[in-house]
Design a protein that fits this description.
This protein is α/β, with parallel strands linked by helices. The protein contains 8 helices and 11 strands. The strands form 2 sheets. The protein has a 7-stranded mixed β-sheet with strand order 3-2-1-4-5-11-10, with helices on both faces. The chain has a 4-stranded antiparallel β-sheet with strand order 6-7-8-9. The mean pLDDT is about 95. The protein binds S-adenosylmethionine. The site of S-adenosylmethionine (SAM) has 21 residues, from helix 1 and helix 3.
Length: about 260
């Protein structure tokens, strides 16, 4: 799957991305605590220069900026980057945002104390060369002893059971509309990659689109492909890219819903 199709997936999802969370602002605040704590534990008291290299609409970038860090957010999706800037400004957060592919970061070598890549962004890269290129790019923009923070789904079990769907998630917006989000997965023959069909059911009259009569649902379907990289595979990739102290932290340790990798440049 090409980077343009991943870009299209997230461009199309941008306006509704916050609906993945029961309450996006609560998630921003909770994740800020998680990642701010990790930064402090590894780098000492901040503020730190943080690059969020898959910032999306700003779930982590905004919260970290509100905690006083000097945050740059980059992402493949121009619409997500634009929304991250707007949402940050609305909340009084200062972030520098730009469109960039994490495999080719147009940023100064050594410019950041930490690089964050959160919530399963890396699995959109489908080949070993692409994952290696992204980790090399991140390694290049980190300062000496800088920190990589990466989160992914816990794929080891998932690969054993090869589920074909995710549980529905519900979110209720301020106007009382409840959105249902779920995914259908079709596994490739290699047992590692899967096509992901992302569904959102949004009640009529709650998605800002014209022409609804308030009696049904609008169904949005977007398709992409992911590589279900295990933590062991990612440890190998990070080590090959030159990172040291590669460590996985469990959800019980961090409070985040995915395993979190930390590693030093
Ligand atoms: C699941 S979203 C997570 C976004 C954000 N971190 C959050 O938690 O809200 C994955 C993000 O990775 C971005 N992404 C995928 N491939 C990328 C690439 N090659 N370079 C930069 N960003 C990429 C997507 O555009 C998307 O915004």
């Amino acid at each position: 799957m090409s980077s343009s199709s991943v870009r299209r997936f997230y461009d199309e999802l941008t306006a509704d991305y916050h609906r993945i969370f029961p309450d996006w602002d609560v998630s921003i605040a909770r994740q800020a605590t998680t990642f701010d704590t990790l930064l402090g534990a590894h780098l000492g008291p901040g503020p730190h220069r943080v690059l969020d290299c898959a910032c999306g609409i700003g779930t982590q970038a905004i919260g970290l900026a509100l905690r006083g860090h000097d945050v740059t957010g980059t992402d493949l999706s121009p619409r997500a980057v634009a929304r991250a800037q707007t949402e940050a400004a609305t909340r009084g957060a200062r972030i520098t945002a730009a469109v960039a592919d994490m495999r080719r970061l147009p940023l100064r070598p050594g410019a950041f104390d930490a690089v964050l890549c959160a919530d399963n962004a890396l699995p959109h890269l489908l080949t070993g060369d692409d994952v290696a290129a992204a980790l090399a790019a991140v390694h290049r923009v980190l300062c000496d002893d800088g920190l990589l923070v990466l989160t992914v789904r816990d794929y080891a079990d998932i690969r054993r059971t090869r589920p074909t769907s995710t549980s529905p998630q519900l979110s209720t917006t301020a106007d009382g509309g409840t959105t249902i989000t779920f995914q259908l997965w079709r596994w490739h023959d290699d047992g590692e990659r899967y096509d992901l069909r992302h569904f959102q059911l949004i009640p009529d009259g709650h998605d800002g689109r014209d022409g609804s009569d308030g009696t049904g649902w609008r169904v949005h379907e977007r398709v992409t492909t992911c590589w279900a990289l295990t933590t062991a595979q990612l440890t190998d990739f990070a080590t090959a890219a030159g990172f040291t102290d590669v460590t996985w932290h469990t959800p019980q340790e961090t409070g985040f819903y995915q395993p979190v990798l930390t590693a030093r440049r």
